Amino acid sequence: MIRSEILKEIAPILRDKLVVCNIGLPSQELHLIDDQPSNFYMLGTMGLSSSIGLGLALSQPKTVISIDGDGSVLTNLGTLPTIANNVADNYILLIIDNGSYGSTGDQPTYAGLKTSLTRVAEACGCENVVECDASETASVLQQAIDSGKMTIIVSKCESGNIKVPVITMDPVVIRDRFMKAVQSS
Amino acid sequence: MSVNKKIVSDLVANQIGFVTTVPCKQLAGVIEEIDASDEIYHIPANKEDEGMGLCAGAFMGGKRPAIIMQNTAIGVTINTLVTLTQFYRMPLPMLISYRGELGEPVACQVEMAVHTKALLAQLNIPTYHFHREEDVEELDAILKHTFMCNKPVAILTDAAFWKGY
Ligand SMILES: [Mg+2]
């Protein structure tokens, strides 16, 4: 399975949750598959999906899912100790780990070589770290939501991309409709 | 009231409830006050761009954020300031220790000090410079201005303001 197939499978679970989605193809794919006002698409700033999601989870009670990539987590590796030490039980970090920088042409990341992000997250002090196969992502994600415990999911998948258009929505519109979704009951 | 207490009471009076910090010697006292405040969630960041991501999330979650950092961080955070904070039009007060000004004992700090205001000007970031202790009286108005215009705003605080180290 590749990332877009995972996103298709988890889209029904994501639909009524607050989702912060990583820059580039992940956001473009999610936007194509199931655009929702409750999706915050990152149009720039590689690496900060997990940080934005944590700040959001710590500031309001709804469930927040940050969708991140292995390359982006490696870019902002300092995020994992911050997450571990600021527990928000309404927060799930879903790392779609295809071992490559998908948006830039599938160059290999260190996560696809010797580095295990699962073990890095554990070493940083994260308490609920679940590594799964891509095909199990939907059920692992649903379990994590139901558990009511902050969870880091590392979903191992194949690298590969589908053709998707860029997001042309204005960033302020993305942010405004997202904030309205945050505030809605 | 000490300057550190005055700064934190202005943050609280402006409903700032989420503060991320990367430490600097000059900021040690104010960071301590923030950590002790019941009204502020203090979340230390490992790098300033990470901190700005946390602040963006907090803002969208309905909390008013602020970041406390050293001026060297301007070099670290330009991409984040431009593609996240400014592009999505989010407010962010940045209380910045302005290292490398008069009284600075570390030569390397001057290397970034000479670029600090030029970079902030290039980024069209409203910038205020606290040099004398009474300059802190403007903080309340600066915070109100920041959340009025939804922009990142820089408050540079130099060694003279902090009365040395
Ligand atoms: Mg990847």
Question: How would the blueprint of this fold be written?
Answer:
The complex is a heterodimer of chains A (185) and B (165).
Chain A: H1 3-14, E1 18-21, H2 25-34, E2 39-41, H3 49-59, E3 64-69, H4 70-75, H5 79-85, E4 91-97, E5 100-101, E6 107-108, H6 117-123, E7 129-133, H7 137-147, E8 151-156, H8 171-183
Chain B: H1 3-13, E1 16-21, H2 28-36, E2 41-44, H3 48-60, E3 64-70, H4 72-86, E4 92-98, H5 107-122, E5 127-130, H6 139-149, E6 152-158
Parallel strand pairs in B: 1-2, 1-3, 3-4, 4-6, 5-6
Helix pairs in contact in B: 1-2, 3-4
Magnesium ion binds next to helix 4 and strand 5 of chain A.
Structure report:
The complex is a heterodimer of chains A (185) and B (165). Chain A has 185 residues and is an alpha/beta fold. Chain A has a single domain (3-183), classed as Thiamin diphosphate (ThDP)-binding fold, Pyr/PP domains (Rossmann fold, 3-Layer(aba) Sandwich), CATH 3.40.50. Helices cover 42% and strands 19% of the residues of chain A. Chain A has eight helices and eight strands. Chain A has helices at 3-14, 25-34, 49-59, 70-75, 79-85, 117-123, 137-147, 171-183, and strands at residues 18-21, 39-41, 64-69, 91-97, 100-101, 107-108, 129-133, 151-156. In chain A, the strands form two sheets. A six-stranded parallel sheet of chain A has the order 2-1-3-4-8-7, with helices on both faces. In chain A, helix 1 (3-14) crosses helix 2 and helix 1 (3-14) runs parallel beside helix 7 (137-147). Chain B is α/β, with parallel strands linked by helices. Chain B has a domain at 3-105 and 127-137: 3-Layer(aba) Sandwich (Rossmann fold), CATH 3.40.50. Chain B is built from six helices and six strands; from the N terminus they run αβαβαβαβαβαβ. Chain B has helices spanning 3-13, 28-36, 48-60, 72-86, 107-122, 139-149, and strands at 16-21, 41-44, 64-70, 92-98, 127-130, 152-158. A six-stranded parallel sheet of chain B has the order 2-1-3-4-6-5, with helices on both faces. The interface between A and B is medium-sized, with 34 and 33 residues. Bound molecules: magnesium ion. Magnesium ion is lined by residues 69-71, 98, 100-102, 109 of chain A.
